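Hi there, hope your week has been kind to you so far. Please have a think about how the structure follows from the sequence. I've dropped the whole record in just underneath, so have a look:

_____
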Amino acid sequence: MWHPLAIARFCTRTSSRNGRQLILTRSSKSLLLALALLLAGILGCKSAVWKARVLADKQDHPSKIISDGASVYFVTGGTIASQNEGTNNINRIALQDGSVSVLVKGGEHLPSPALAVDDKFLYWAEPGHIYRVPKAGGESELIVRDAPGQPDEMSVDDENIYWLVYGGTGSHNLPVLFAKKSGGSTQKLATGQEGYSGLCVDHDFVYWIAATGIKKAPKTGGTDAFLYRNPNKGPMSDMVQDADNLFYAQMDNHNDWVLMKIAKKGGEPAKLAPSISEVMQFVANDKSIYYFERETSNTYLLRKISTGGGEPVTLDRGKDSWNKFLAVDNTQVYFTTIANVLVVGK
């Protein structure tokens, strides 16, 4: 197929008919060029389709997604309308055969877009409560009865489940919380936080993005402290980790969002990727960060970059279709659109 601009150049050349030269006027050339650019736009729109394979379609606004390598779990619905229609659920996709099933039937519950998983259970939440359900299926068990507000981000280790509370923009006095994942009362790891996000948990510490920097607190208890202060610099959003580093999004001096890296032992951060979408999730796995980057006003790139630096690699590109939530396992990357769950190789 000819490139549209090549068509324009060809059409604006002189041609011969019966020995006479046919010269296109300036207005004719402008018209042909406009048509060529319109064709280019149409072809560009047609090509901006996600090439990722659809794992599940006709889902009700799938949101938070997580994978353990054997299955993919995701939240659907989340509104009163979905509750009335019976689609406010947590679904599971078995990767071995591709079957889609309802793991948690929401019913009177409205599951929050927050999930965590360990070797036996999937953990989910609704305002005031946290549950766990066997990954193989079964009844959900209420493990935290006194969770204040709406649990937002959750993470588990061998003994506990940790979470933040959804507070909205500009919220004050928010706590970092934990409880025994086998069941128990809510305990406070830190209080008085403002506008936080990016919960990360490792062997010794819990980390999160605070209003003025990155904070951490010992898992055994004690005073939270700044790992990195962010005075008079751009806002920060979300955070993921590997064994030695933390990765977060930040607005730079040009009002562009970039991906940053800082060592858990402290020090100055460094820019890892020059552009990242601050409203979409990014994840870390296998020495790479996977993230979305805005390409045009209505198209996005799904990219990865080595945690050690280098050039980003594009895995897929497509139209903005409410694609926000992202997950990864040892072999594949998963993401959601307004009605689908898709998968692409790493």
Q: What stands out?
A: The longest strand covers residues 299-306. Residues 4-47 form one domain.
